[in-house]
Specification:
By secondary structure, the chain is mainly α. The chain is built from seven helices and four strands, in the order αββαααβαβαα. The longest helix is centred in the first third of the chain and has 35 residues. The N and C termini lie far apart (about 35 Å).
Length: about 200
């Protein structure tokens, strides 16, 4: 019952409450990012959702668009802004995804939506992460986030799909709040991004 119906009700209510409570912070951060990013505070990107269906994820923009002489974007560490680093440190860039939850693209809890380019690389067991809606936070995020390997991340995602329940979602929410406050497991190396996933079971 929870998986089929009540989870969506929980998501919608939680997203409304979250936006109401966090709106003062969100507005302040948006205003700051408007100045820091030359009038562009938001970041939109196509991500795969449930069953691999693509949707546009909404996040706060924490990096500039500087490119090298070949027209390629510079590495993460060269594009992250000071304001963006602070916003990411406290996961404030994730707040706009509550709008994705209201629209039904995402859930509060679920496997994090990864890049569209990874879809053809998944093994059959890894594809099972798309049996549920992607989430703002999830079981992998509270068990290491970017400090764990891709293999561990997929294993945690699939475990969540098999064990999804109301009480597990509440447990993940509580652990997420704790990790955000204590800034645990945001990344293994000064908040750098995860390495690119290239396929296979053992990354």
């Amino acid at each position: 019952m929870y998986r089929l119906f009540l989870k969506r009700c929980f998501d919608f209510f939680a997203a409304l409450v979250g936006l109401f409570l966090l709106s003062p912070i969100l507005i302040i951060v948006i205003v700051i990012l408007i100045f820091a990013n030359n009038g562009n505070p938001f970041f939109f990107q196509s991500r795969p959702g449930k069953k691999g269906a693509l949707f546009s994820i909404i996040k706060l923009k924490t990096m500039n668009d500087k490119k090298d002489e070949h027209g390629e974007l510079l590495p993460y560490e060269d594009r992250i802004t000071k304001t963006g680093a602070f916003v990411r440190k406290y996961s404030l860039d994730e707040i706009p995804q509550l709008f994705n939850v209201l629209k039904g693209n995402m859930s509060i809890i679920g496997p994090r939506p990864l890049l569209e380019q990874y879809l053809p690389l998944y093994k059959d067991w890894q594809k099972r992460r798309h049996d549920v809606k992607p989430g703002i936070t999830g079981w992998a995020q509270v068990n290491g986030r970017n400090t764990i390997s891709w293999k561990q991340k997929f294993e945690y995602d699939v475990w969540y799909v098999d064990n999804l329940s109301f009480f597990l979602d509440i447990k993940i929410i509580v652990k997420t709040i704790k990790k955000v406050v204590l800034k645990e497991g945001v990344n293994s190396n000064d908040n750098l991004n995860m390495p690119v996933f290239t396929g296979g079971d053992n990354e």
